Amino acid sequence: MHNIAKEFNQILSNTTAMSLLSDLGRRMYFPKGIVSQEAEAGIKAKRIKATVGMATKGSDPLYLDSIYRDFKGLEASKVFPYASTAGDPELREVWKQAMIEKNPDLKGKNTSLPLVCSGLTHGISLTADLFIDAGDTVLVPDMFWGNYRLIIEERREARIETFPFYTAEKDGMNLKELDRAIARQEGEKVVLIVNFPNNPSGYSPTNAKAAELVDILTSYARKGKKILVITDDAYFGLFFEDDIYRQSLFAPLADAHENILAVKIDGATKEDFVWGFRVGFVTYGSKGLEPRQYEVLEKKTMGAVRSSISNSSRPAQSLLLKGLKSETYLQEKQQAFDLLKERYLKVKEILEAHRDDENLIPLPFNSGYFMAFTCRGDAEKLRVYLLDTYEVGTIAIQSDYLRIAFSSVDIERLEELYSILYQAAAELWS
Ligand SMILES: Cc1ncc(COP(=O)(O)O)c(C=O)c1O
């Protein structure tokens, strides 16, 4: 093991974070190589700087006009040079500030500074690299984003164990099953991923359910379980009903108990409608962790970034930062929210009109981009039938559920879409 990693692990000793690290996480460090020598030169090399692997002309990066032309309003230095491994320092601060505004319970709590990664997928993958070993079990409700399988089972060779997301009455999240799933875990390590608003169901917990979830985790932490909770907050903020817990579960979990390490994975992808930018963030929170220990977790994460993608897209970070600081940002975001909420309400209205339909039963949803139906027959068969007969695209989840991204259909087309869905299901199953 490298000496810097040993030093880092020493700083983390006796923390839950240390006991949760994977083998790779324990070995990970951020080298004092080119990147840190460059940073040092940035401060001290006032005369000539011949350090970084970029080309410059005067004080600007060397660039091609045909590429720069369309970056209206961004200085060349905000477009072309590498971003630092952990991301643009100002963007990290601005994102943290916004995170506290969006999650007021974080105010006054110690967390790490959000570290930029290349979208939420990358953030989840980095966290998995650092904390999940081959053979580990990762608990996920049975409504989950399919990419977790590739990351956890194929890349990390760990095992996903699901528990029912909804109660049998389908009236909300099944926390009894979560409790049972944790109780089943042998050994002290527990890894859980929560994703609200949920993909594929579009469900977010009520205030009461969120509080109960935190209580369950805290009670196991008190009994000695070391719990890693990854909050995948991809669709954060798109809450369309009143009685929904409106913060990330990261907020209460960040200081719930010393035995809980919460990792917030969020980003601009869906929150700021910039899917192709590839800007996500990784933030750590655990009761009692000191700033120098957060710094070590950041450095280990930087090592994981450096050794995989080196650093994230610079122009995307610069454009995002500019947008976040714009005077019209909040107003525009509200408008985008209103547009999606109108679609949500329209879908609810359509479903109400079909409440007696027995082929497609909607699962509870109150947030996010999606809703899902439980299908009377094979969902994949319906998906293919919809495509081939009606040229309508949907997503089948296993053979049971059909996911509809109402976020990507204009309100004027929703009646048409849903009438085709019901019609096609009736043709197959009535
Ligand atoms: C639940 C969930 N998490 C993460 C992601 C990935 O986000 P990104 O595109 O930023 O990698 C998605 C994208 O569909 C998602 O649905």
What does this structure look like?
- With about 425 residues, the protein is α/β, with parallel strands linked by helices.
- The chain folds into 3 domains: about 5-30 and about 85-325, Aspartate Aminotransferase, domain 2 (3-Layer(aba) Sandwich); about 30-80, no CATH class; about 330-430, Aspartate Aminotransferase, domain 1, CATH 3.90.1150.
- Helix content is about 45%, strand content about 15%.
- The chain is built from 17 helices and 13 strands.
- The protein has a 7-stranded mixed β-sheet, with helices on both faces. The protein has a 4-stranded antiparallel β-sheet with strand order 10-11-13-12, with helices on one face. A two-stranded antiparallel ribbon has the order 1-2.
- A hairpin with a 7-residue loop joins strand 10 (about 360) and strand 11.
- Helix 16 packs across helix 17.
- It starts with a helix and ends with a helix.
- The mean pLDDT is about 95.
- Bound molecules: pyridoxal-5'-phosphate.
- Pyridoxal-5'-phosphate binds near residues 195 and 269.
User: Tally of extended strands?
Assistant: 13
From the spread of the alpha carbons, the general shape counts as globular
Strand order of the largest sheet: 3-9-8-7-6-4-5
Bound molecules: pyridoxal-5'-phosphate
Assign the CATH superfamily of the largest domain: Type I PLP-dependent aspartate aminotransferase-like (Major domain)
Q: How does the helix and strand content classify structurally? A: alpha/beta
CATH architecture of the largest domain: 3-Layer(aba) Sandwich
Mean pLDDT: 96
Overall tally of domains: 3
Radius of gyration: 23 Å
Order of helices and strands: HHHHEEHHEHEHEHEHEHEHEHHHEEHEEH
Reported by name, the CATH topology of the largest domain is Aspartate Aminotransferase, domain 2
